[in-house]
Structure formats: C-alpha cells, structure tokens
Write a structure and sequence with these properties.
Layout: E1 2-3, E2 6-7, E3 11-13, E4 21-24, E5 35-38, H1 41-49, H2 56-73, H3 77-88, H4 95-108, H5 113-151, E6 159-163, H6 180-187, E7 192-197, H7 204-216, E8 220-223, H8 228-233, E9 239-242, E10 246-248, E11 253-256, H9 259-269, E12 273-276, E13 282-283, H10 289-292, H11 301-304, E14 305-309, E15 315-319, E16 332-335, E17 342-345, E18 348-350, H12 354-360
Parallel strand pairs: 6-7, 6-9, 7-8, 9-12, 10-13, 12-17
Antiparallel strand pairs: 1-2, 3-4, 4-5, 10-11, 11-16, 14-15, 17-18
Active site: 245 (proton donor)
Protein name: Methylthioribose-1-phosphate isomerase
Family: Belongs to the EIF-2B alpha/beta/delta subunits family. MtnA subfamily.
Length: 365
C-alpha cells in the first residue's frame, strides 16, 4: 500500500543494513507514523505482545523474522527451540503465529548451524511473499460478491460494507484480508462505502482501519460498535466482511471481540456475513471453536482507559471507568459456523463447514 506516494509493506528488512527488521509502531497510529527497528528476538516478542504489530497474518510474518534475528545471533538448535517457544507464547489465539514458527523450525532444524541464518532470511521472506499473494487472491475472490451487490443497485449507488476490527494491510504484510476485496473494488471504480466499527477496547477500527482507508481514498464512516445492528435494521448494510484469527475444522471463526454480535445481527436481518480467511489461519486440529480455542485475556486497563489526542495536540491517556471498578478484557470471541455465510480464501469461496473447507483444501483431510 502507498503512504504519501511511497509503497510500504507492514514488515520489511532494513534496506540500509540489510539485516534488521522494520515495522510500523501501530500503537502510535493514527496520530503519528513511526517506524521501529527490531534487532533481536526479544524486541520482536515485545512488539507482538504489546501490539506494536498485530493482526494474525502479520504476527506470523514478524515472528518468522524474530527467528531470523535469533539465528543471526546464535544458530544453535537449542536456541532455535527456545526462541520458537518464547515467540509462540506471546499471543495464544491467532494460529498464524504457531503456523509460521512451525514452518521456520521445520526449514531450519536439520540444516547445519552455519547455514541457518541465511536459510532463515529466505524462509521468512517466503512467508511474507506468501501472505502478500494470499491476500491479493482473497481480494480477487471477494470482489465478485461486491460486484453482484452493485449490479442490483442504481448506477453510482455505493455498496455498503460493514467491517469489524482491522483486517487491512496493517494486519497483514500487504493488501489485507477483509479489506482486500474493498480495496480492489475501489481501485476498479466500483462505488463502495465502509462502515468502520470503532472496535473497543483498543479501537483498531477507528484508529487503524479508518486511517488506512482514508490514505487509500476509500469512502468510510466510523460508527460505535453497537450501531451495526441498527444500520442493518434500516437497510444500510449490504454485506459484512470480517477477518479472522483462527478458523476451525468445522468452520467456527475466532475474531476480535464483538464479531459474534455482528454475526447475530446479520443473521436476524438477512445480511450476508462473510469471513476472509488466509490458509495460515485454518486450524484443522481444532473442531469445536467454543470449547477448544484459547481466548486471550488482556490487561484490564485497555477497557478502563482510553488514549487519544487532545485539542492542543497532546496524546493523553484518561480513565473512563469508575474508580475502583474491576474490568474483564477477553480479546476475542468465537462465531459458530452456522452464522457464517461463507469463507473467502485465496483458493476461492466456500461454506463454513468441514466439507466446504476440504473442497478447497483437500490435502488437509
């Protein structure tokens, strides 16, 4: 994606030194665009845990580069295993993290120590390139859904999409998952308008989705999380498209907290509810999402406090909850497959079921 005319990805190897890793500090957006330089696996683990980088596909790619930096410092098998274990503990819900680390470990474990650093750079780059092409293809397979809606509308009338959290290029290496069809529709001249859920408690929609849609010139409106059902009742939503952090064998979907409520409202109002899923998010080892997917519980301060920019330009954090009141902060929820219209993948679209998934991924049987 482009920012001020320059193309960026969400993770890249520094062009000047040729070995360190660069990322955007997403905790500073949308108020400032700051680029961080990561030089060791500990910094990578901190960036993932603190959500300086977030989004299931991007977490996996950045973790792969964490292994790269670890192998540059110490290419021993013991260090490889320790680093993969440590990085794997940073975020428990998104399966892309485990997928990327397992791929890195498999690529490096049987190589001589002296060749591991170079092989690690190559494998991490391959993971990043795979994500870019995967997300591009998700957009290509999701675009017909928007075209079909546009064909039923009056000329020039926008296709109205509601999305939740951030599943754009900031959550991936490039293009995004749920936003990829939207970007491709906009670039093709299809009129589209996006309802952007604020996505409490971290406000990834208001801060990140709105920021990147604005940079790309896509018409959008930020709404409170609880406005989605109202908009659907009044015919203001043609389709819901969200991303996902894990999809189970039978099609259950784990995504940012609040996704389940959008799916319920969509079902009640006859609005299609689609989930954009890269192959790295599919977890065939899990069948029952409610029973088996671990749900990350994050710091209560994310609920009780808000950070924003004051009228005089200062970035301030303020408490919004009553003093002394405790808060719970489950970061994800699970939407049962029965509420999902279908999955948009890099191989095509399918129903959210074991049969649907195996129709596109027969090798997973």
């Amino acid at each position: 994606m482009r920012i001020a005319g320059r193309h960026y990805r969400s993770v890249w190897v520094d062009e000047e030194d040729g070995w360190s890793v660069r990322i955007f500090d997403q905790t500073r957006l949308p108020w400032s665009l700051e680029i961080l330089r990561l030089t060791d696996a500990g910094q990578v683990a901190h960036a993932i845990r603190s959500m300086q980088v977030r989004g299931a596909p991007l977490i996996g790619a950045v973790a792969a580069y964490g292994v790269v930096l670890a192998m540059r410092a110490d290419p021993s098998t013991a260090h490889l295993d320790r680093v993969c274990e440590a990085l794997g503990r940073t975020r428990p819900t998104a399966v892309n993290l485990r997928w990327a680390l397992e791929r890195m470990r498999a690529a490096l474990h049987d190589r001589p120590a002296g060749r591991r650093a170079a092989a690690a750079y190559a494998e991490a780059a391959a993971i990043a390139e795979d994500d870019v092409e995967t997300c591009r293809r998700i957009g290509a397979h999701g675009l017909p859904l928007l075209r079909e809606i546009a064909a039923r509308k009056a000329p020039g009338e926008a296709v109205k999409v509601l999305t939740h959290c951030n599943a754009g290029w900031l959550a991936t290496v490039d293009y995004g998952t749920a936003l990829s069809p939207i970007y491709q529709a906009h670039d093709a001249g299809l009129p589209v308008h996006v309802w952007v859920d604020e996505t409490r408690p971290r406000n990834q929609g208001a801060a990140l989705t709105a920021w990147e849609l604005g940079r790309h010139g896509v018409p959008h409106t930020v709404v409170a999380d609880n406005a989605g059902g109202h908009l659907m009742q009044h015919g203001e939503v043609d389709i819901v498209i969200v991303g996902t952090d894990r999809v189970t064998r039978r099609g259950d979907v784990a995504n940012k907290i609040g996704t389940y409520l959008k799916a319920l409202a969509a079902r009640d109002n006859g609005v299609p509810f689609w989930v954009a899923m890269p192959h790295s998010t599919l977890d065939m080892r899990v069948r029952d999402g409610l029973a088996e997917i671990p749900i990350e519980e994050r710091d209560a301060a994310e609920v009780t406090e808000l950070t924003g920019r004051t009228a005089d330009g200062r970035i301030e954090t303020v408490r919004v909850a009553a003093e002394g009141s405790p808060a719970a902060n489950p970061a994800f929820d699970v939407t049962p497959a029965r509420l999902v219209t279908g999955l948009i993948t890099e191989r095509g679209r399918c129903e959210a079921s074991e049969a649907g998934l195996l129709s596109l991924y027969p090798e997973k049987a």
